[in-house]
Amino acid sequence: MHVSFDPWSPAFVADPYPAYAALRAAGRAHYFEPTRQWLIPHYTDVSGLLRDRRLGRTYLHRFSHEEFGLTPPPAAHEPFHTLNGQGLLDLEAPDHPRIRRLVSKAFTPRTVERLAPTVRRLACELVDAFVEQGGGDLLAAVAEPLPVAVIAEMLGIPEADRALLRPWSSAICGMFELNPSEETAEAAVRASIDFSAYLRELIAERRTSPGDDLVSALIAAHDDGERLSEQEMISTCVLLLNAGHEAIVNTTVNGWRTLFHHPDRLAALRADPTLLPTAIEELLRFDTPLQMFERWVLDDIEIDGTVIPRGSEVALLFGSANRDAERFARPDTLDLSRSDNPHITFGAGIHYCLGAPLARLELSASFDELLRKAPGMRMTAEPEWQPGYVIRGLKELRVEL
Asked: Across-strand partners of 302?
């Protein structure tokens, strides 16, 4: 095992890419004792395993914890596991296709298109206010409020309640890091209880007076016999918020930091806004917001002669796969006009990100507004990274205009 892979080290979190290059050079599967996971660093393997039905986000549709050789989570963590376990991301067949079919109705290209004016208006308002105050923390002022507001509008969450969403989401997402502490677990459990109670009330309100929001649509589908339980509705709404905003916040600020570090590329983008669509894809590839995606091995698999037995967990290294020279020409070069760019930032297979079109819409709106309205924007200090590695982002991004 290569010593430089250290997900708890601030230096590694700040720049994991040299360690990934060493992992790729050393082989295709590496057992990492501290997390008891197999690290998979190559694009072809990560992409293939995302589509491989011998792996799953959960194993509970086939095995008990004990049969799988694992200890059940502590009873005190139950509210978090109930909430997380009923969400699309952690379900497998037959529940996954049933819920995904239903939720995907809210994410059709037409629905996303209908959201475009709302997304543009929200981005415009946030950037105008940011420009008016002469800059500040781009994360707090633009990157974070935009996706939260968009998801809240979709769900029909009143504006007065939106400040609750980010702390809940942040606490729940703490559990997706490697070997979370008991303190992290307690915060996630509290947030799971509070967020679930809030959504239960919202669902009860929408049952009596439905609107044209996603919660009302989920209730309608549920009542039409699609058998979406109240818990599945709650878990779906929480997942949409968590997935929808953590990734977009981090792509926005990580992306701007990358551009500030490549002033010639930023100047080219400012000079030619038609580069924006490929630039966004390249920023998603170059500094991936979700660095690792975990899967359980439900039936033995073999990678390059190494058998990874049932009951193991693989850690698919998205950040490494997106920098693999076997798939990307000059992978460590930021090429904003890169046309051959099948990055796996949104995943692949049955768990491919449902919200990818919406994410692209939001990123495009905020980057476009900032490029046009803050043409002299620059970093005032090198930002610090959050301690988390799996969901990797900055604490803040201070800029002046």
From this structure: 307
The one-character DSSP state at 391 is B
Q: What is the pLDDT of residue 224?
A: 62
Q: For residue 156, what is the domain's CATH number? A: 1.10.630.10
What is the count of structural domains for the chain?
A: 1
Taking each continuous run of H as one helix and of E as one strand, the counts in the chain are: 16, 10
Q: What is the DSSP string of 141-187?
A: IIITHHHHHHHHHHHT--GGGGGGHHHHHHHHHGGGSSS--HHHHHH
Q: Are 386 and 393 in contact (CB under 8 A)?
A: yes
How far apart are alpha carbons 310 and 317 in whole angstroms?
20
Q: Is 135 left (phi over 0), alpha (psi -120 to 50) or beta?
A: left
**Count of positions (residues) in the chain:** 401
- Domain assignment of residue 190, yes or no: yes
Residue type at 274 in one-letter notation: T
pTM of the model: 0.94
Which tokens belong to 261? 């570090």
**Do 174 and 190 contact (CB within 8 A), yes or no?**
no
The set of residues, in sequence order, having a beta carbon less than 8 Å from that of 336 and lying 6+ positions away, is: 265, 268, 269, 275, 278, 279, 282
DSSP SS3 for 316? strand
Instruction: Note whether residue 1 is domain-resident.
Output: no
Which residues are 56's β-sheet partners? 296
Q: Residue 295: helix, strand or coil by DSSP?
A: strand
Q: Which domain holds residue 115?
A: 10-400
DSSP letters for 199-257: HHHHHHHHHHS--SSHHHHHHHHIIIII---HHHHHHHHHHHHHHHHHHHHHHHHHHHH
Say if 53 falls within a structural domain.
yes
Residue 95 in domain? yes
Q: What is the distance between the alpha carbons of residues 29 and 27, in angstroms, rounded to a whole number?
A: 6
| Per-run averaged pLDDT (10 residues), the chain, 401 residues | 81 96 97 96 98 94 92 94 89 87 76 90 98 97 94 90 91 93 96 97 95 87 71 91 87 98 98 97 97 97 97 97 98 98 95 91 97 97 96 97 95
Across the beta sheet with 313-317, what order do the strands follow?
30-32, 37-40, 313-317, 292-297, 55-56
